[in-house]
Amino acid sequence: MSSDLASAINSNSAAYLTSDRTELAPLCNVQQDIRGLRIIISCITVFTVLVSMALMTQLHGGDYQVVPHGSVVSDSSECSAAGVAVMRKGGSVVDAVISTLFCLSVVSPHLVGIGGGGYMLVYDQRQRAVVGCLDFQSSLGSSNSSIGIPGFVAGLSQAHQSFGKLPWSSLLNAAIEMAGAGFQVSDGLQAAALLAADRKQLKDLLVSGHNPRLFSTLQALALNGSDGSGWWWLVSH
């Protein structure tokens, strides 16, 4: 190979590829222009960065693509729906429980009622720990009387003060509406009415599906029960 050809090949200016495939004879004699490829890669990189920034902004400040939700289970589908409706309005789980329980006091007065009490255990999934344990069972007076002091309203009010988000009065809306407009009597309530056949007033209350006195009572509790004094307000009035 002549020195001129070797020099031309080494400088990528040879007009052809020689058959002598040595270190002095590269496979390509003309350097390709890769500026177009660099532009494409740059555009893809910029696009990827912009999409990533948009997704991060959406995740931190945008609307949920999958709406957070929860479920409520109770003896009444109407009361369960009332609890779910509370969460959809931005209420806490405890808000949903309070609304559901007041609703049950209307449709299942033989099981749940404002004259009773209960327990509440609040578990925080994020902390993986119990954050609240409330005991609002009916308590007996110092004289060992058979008549207990109801803790239902006071206990739920305390739970609302600690874990609630929505206004107290809004949590009683479903119960007030059902007590005033009426509701479908369940099989369990009908069975309870049969056991109370010898007590006409109680039987009429159970089977009619309307409870005007409870309707008025719940309205009063909605206005005066948020601080836990609702039951004493009812007694005094």
From TrEMBL:
Keywords: Membrane, Transmembrane, Transmembrane helix. One of its GO terms (cellular component) is plasma membrane. SUPFAM superfamilies: N-terminal nucleophile aminohydrolases (Ntn hydrolases). The keyword Aminoacyl-tRNA synthetase does not apply. InterPro entries: GGT_peptidase, Ntn_hydrolases_N. The keyword Ribosomal protein does not apply. GO terms for biological process: glutathione catabolic process. GO terms for molecular function: glutathione hydrolase activity. PANTHER family: GAMMA GLUTAMYL TRANSPEPTIDASE (PTHR11686), GLUTATHIONE HYDROLASE 7 (PTHR11686:SF54). This is Gamma-glutamyltransferase. It comes from Graphocephala atropunctata.
